[in-house]
Design brief:
The complex is a heterodimer. Chain A is mainly alpha-helical. Chain A has one domain. Helix content of chain A is about 40%, strand content about 10%. In chain A, strand 1, helix 2 and strand 2 form a beta-alpha-beta unit. The longest helix of chain A has 18 residues. Chain B is of the alpha/beta class. Chain B has five domains: about 120 residues, Rossmann fold; about 170 residues, FAD/NAD(P)-binding domain (3-Layer(bba) Sandwich), CATH 3.50.50; about 55 residues, no CATH class; about 160 residues, FAD/NAD(P)-binding domain (3-Layer(bba) Sandwich); about 60 residues, Alpha-Beta Plaits, CATH 3.30.70.20. Chain B contains 17 helices and 34 strands. In chain B, helix 6 crosses helix 7 and helix 11 packs across helix 12. The longest helix of chain B has 20 residues. The chains are: A mainly alpha, B alpha/beta. Chains A and B meet through helix 1 and helix 2 of A and helix 5, helix 16 and helix 17 of B.
Chain lengths: ~120, ~650
């Protein structure tokens, strides 16, 4: 990131996982429950998955997860999925800025989900 | 359980400390539950820093360690090794990325401080839940499978064999030497190709460490680095290699004549034949498509003609199994089929050839015995070479194959030598002849008065039309002028594309391909012969179009990688961060079995539960995220650990 001289939004926090394939829908729900106003899943481009096909599974899970989010009263637009390779610094930073802008436009998430989401 | 967490903060020279108040961060960290002590160091990754860590950890004896420094991509391994040496399990450790994720990308110091506190807090919560993991070691096989006996594959096989490794070299054709053996001369030295390759091919055939399997293809590959099991289909050739002396009596007598595909169908061959004179191994094979015996007749002419009883009609296709530790894929290239672009006339106008066909025409063991002749056996008076056919063209192949300009120059040199009166028109867009010897090779042909160039723009806008005996070419040159020429013969330089069956091989080996079908490198710049699968390497045109020199360099490079990766007597370390399935909780739904990209999960029918093979598992966690009963667990990325991190980071 320093190589592109860009600054990423200060209000973004990262959770490292081995592969987007590890992303349990529970992690996303936990994020919203714990106070995130938006969640973005960042993974390798389709066909470039380091673990072969984890990102395809993620893609399918995200479609389902968005439907579930709306049932919880969370706007679907709060969950992003972007394919960004390790060398696409500009895309990475730009995506985060775009996302922060759009989530700010939506406003803070209505803290409706106070109960433990747990395993569904 | 109460744990004692030791936190080490690195200022990375001033990289981190100029954006973050580290003493403030240290005070904050000390106040967190479980944190026993916090230390700040100027450069933890330096030798002095690592020694400090070892001594301090041995002295303080923390249960868990946090190092707040740079990206784990940079130094996680370094610090894991340090902890190992200090007697702490390297997985009871968490790294906080203060440099790439905080100091370098946050403009405001207050915001940076807040961010850093979040990350440290989350790491403290997470690391308390870490479990010690053991790194298992297994024996490895140091034999190697090389797929493709072209120049890259031969180089790899020889390099390995010469250092004492056993190599199984699998080739789909009945001969070795790949495409290069089909050429007469190579550029820019104009050295005879078969003379150049002869010693190498001879060594391939006779090296005691090389098992050469011709007419063979890979059917299945199971396993992982150090322990691959390969299933190979070896097609019957119906001639016993140990008896055949290559005298040719069989094909002289064979009554069936058919087109010779190795001469681009420009000449004939028999149903039992060698593809071309000088092909090695010098053993003919029977072609099932044309031999009378495979069409209901009981012809035995070749068997009767053979003085050595080498013809064996009972020969059958075989399935062979070989165990190897590493695999090199050197499957080479083919040419893009120009008939897909009708404006070039290929396939419709008889005297339009691809470069590979033209190589055969110029070759002494080719259809015309090396004479420049047309199909009507007449000598052409003029000839056009068209560059960039289907390449550097967004609608077809957008890349430059990198070798066509040079072989176009070679063709001109060869035509000049054979028939100095022939006019050669070269229709190009740019000259691409990098390298220390190539520019002078181009310059010398440009001095020849019969060498005329027309520079056009991309994509190649040449239109080819048959007009009685001749071929009319029209195009617009770079200055916008319409150009028309009339020639007897046209040679196209089509894009190089991956070898047929690359898609199938990519599936069998689980290695990925780029958008044009060439196999993808482990890293485009730093790991050009690796793939994303450990133990599988690529070399030559299977990776990308390239010249002979480049292919040979990659063949040697891939062999070198294997020599350093698989060393006799050395064990291979397995991944510690694998998945694990709790048999007591598993409901036996088998969702994970189908999802696992490494076929690492098997279903134990007796117990009705899924079981992870930790040797094959790479720890991606796809099965864990999908398990509906929560019985699958990602070691080091457990749901509890990740959720604790998420909760704390968002507090």
């Amino acid at each position: 990131m320093s190589s592109s001289g860009k600054v990423s939004p200060p209000n973004v926090r990262f959770i490292r996982l081995m592969c987007t394939g590890r992303i349990d829908p529970e992690f996303v729900m936990k994020g919203f429950q714990s106070g995130a106003d938006g969640v973005v899943i960042l993974g390798c481009h389709p066909g470039d998955c380091h673990y072969k096909e984890g990102n395809y599974n993620t893609l399918r899970r995200v479609y389902l997860l968005r439907r579930m989010l709306s049932q919880f009263g969370i706007e679907e637009k709060r969950l992003w999925l972007e394919w960004i390779s390790a060398c696409e610094t500009d895309k990475f930073v730009d995506t985060l800025h775009d996302m922060v802008r759009e989530i700010k436009a939506l406003g803070p998430l209505n803290k409706g989900i106070t109960h433990d989401v747990g395993r569904y | 359980m109460k744990v004692r967490v030791g936190v080490y903060i690195c200022s990375c020279g001033t990289n981190i400390s100029e954006k973050l108040d580290l003493s403030e961060l240290s005070r904050y960290s000390s106040s967190l539950n479980d944190v026993a002590y916090v230390k700040i160091h100027n450069l933890l990754c330096s030798e002095e820093g690592r020694n400090f860590l070892i001594h301090d950890v041995m002295h303080q004896k923390p249960d868990r360690v946090i190092i707040a420094a740079c990206s784990p991509r940079e130094h996680e391994k370094t610090f894991r090794n340090v902890l190992q040496r200090a007697g702490v399990n390297p997985f009871l450790f968490q790294m906080v990325n203060l440099r790439e994720q905080v100091a370098w990308v946050t403009a405001d110091k207050t915001q940076a401080g807040e961010k850093a506190r979040c990350y440290v807090r989350a790491a403290v919560k997470r690391v308390a839940l870490h479990e010690p993991l053991e790194i298992q070691e297994i024996d490895c096989n140091t034999d190697v499978l090389v797929i493709g006996a072209g120049v890259a594959g031969m180089e790899a096989a020889l390099t390995l064999a010469q250092s004492g490794r056993r190599v199984c070299l699998v080739e789909k054709n009945s001969f070795v030497g790949g495409k290069v053996i089909l050429y007469e001369d190579v550029s820019p030295t104009m050295e005879c190709s078969s003379c150049m390759l002869q010693p190498k091919m001879d060594e391939i055939l006779h090296h005691e460490n090389i098992e050469l399997l011709t007419c063979s293809e890979i059917q299945e590959v199971l396993g992982f680095v150090g322990n691959f099991t390969v299933r190979i289909e070896k097609k019957a050739g119906f001639v016993d290699k140990s008896k055949c002396v290559g005298c040719g009596a069989c094909y002289e007598q064979c009554p069936i004549t058919t087109k010779n595909e190795f001469n681009s169908n420009l000449s004939d061959r028999k149903a039992i034949d060698l593809p071309f004179a000088g092909a090695l191994p010098n053993v003919p094979v029977i072609d099932r498509k044309t031999c009378l015996r495979f069409h209901g007749q009981d012809c035995t002419i070749c068997k009767q003609a053979c003085h050595f009883d080498a013809i064996d009609y009972d020969d059958r296709d075989e399935f062979l199994e070989r165990n190897v530790g590493g695999i090199i894929v050197a499957t080479g290239f083919e040419l893009f089929d120009p008939s897909a672009l009708p404006r070039f006339g290929y396939g419709k106008i008889p005297e339009v050839y691809t470069s590979l066909e033209f190589e055969r025409i110029l070759s002494q063991n080719g259809p015309t015995g090396g004479k420049l002749l047309m199909k009507n056996a007449g000598e052409p008076k003029s000839l056009a070479i068209i560059h960039c056919v289907g390449s550097r063209d967004k609608g077809v192949k957008d890349y430059c194959s990198g070798v066509c300009c040079l072989y176009a120059v070679k063709f001109a040199h060869m035509v000049k030598k054979r028939s100095p009166a022939v006019k050669v028109y070269d229709l190009y867009a740019d000259w691409c002849v990098p390298g220390k010897d190539n520019q002078s090779f181009l310059d010398s042909i440009r001095e020849w008065k019969n060498f005329r160039v027309i520079r056009t723009s991309l994509p190649m806008n040449v239109i080819t039309k048959q007009s009685k005996e001749r071929i009319n070419l029209s195009c617009t040159d770079v200055s916008g002028k319409r150009k028309k020429i009339s020639v007897d013969m046209v040679v196209l330089c089509p894009a190089m594309i991956p070898a047929k069956n690359s898609n199938m091989l990519s599936e069998i080996l689980s290695i990925s391909q780029g958008k044009d079908g060439f196999f993808s490198e482990g890293h485009k710049t730093l790991a050009p012969v690796s793939t994303t699968i450990e133990g599988i390497f690529i070399a030559g045109c299977a990776q990308s179009p390239k010249d002979i020199q480049g292919s040979i360099a990659q063949g040697a490079a891939a062999a070198g990688q294997i020599l350093s990766m698989l060393v006799p007597g050395r064990k291979l370390e397995l991944h510690a961060m694998t998945a694990e399935i709790n048999g007591d909780a598993c409901s036996g739904c088998m969702i994970c079995v189908g999802l696992c990209p490494y076929k690492a999960i098997v279903f134990d029918r007796a117990k009705g539960v899924a079981v992870v093979n930790t040797i094959l598992c790479k720890g991606c966690g796809t099965c864990v995220a999908a398990c509906p009963s929560g019985s699958a667990k990602s070691k080091h990325f457990t749901t509890e650990q990740v959720c604790a991190e998420i909760e704390e980071i968002l507090q």
